[in-house]
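Records of this kind hold a single protein each, on a pair of labelled lines. Below, a sample record shows both lines together.
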Amino acid sequence: MGLLDDIANKMAADSANPLASHLMEMIHNQPGGLSGLLQNFHDKGLGELVTSWVGTGQNLPISADQIQHALGSEQVQQLAAKLGIPSGVVSSQLAQLLPTVVDKLTPSGEVPNQSSLLETGMTLLKSLSKTATDAA
């Protein structure tokens, strides 16, 4: 079992933000993990966006359509099926969540090694769960 799977599995049972857990799982399953996901966005012409998320400055926004383009409709549809919500909703929610997740997983402005990623991912999921609970 991989590190991000471990994070997602630990939080999935009681997470108030299931999309965050599935997003962590998706990042883990991406070839190359977080680095591979970021490279995919670069390859799709969205390098400026992801560079802002990794960097220490302001995060540039991404649209639901750009999420669909970068991840591919099949991956978004699979995530939607797991969550039981329409893929358009998933794309919109990912557009809100992904910049924050990448930003929090890269606090020093660069992609961390796997052991640091585990610790940061657990803290992030706990934070997202608390935020979702507080908003309810």
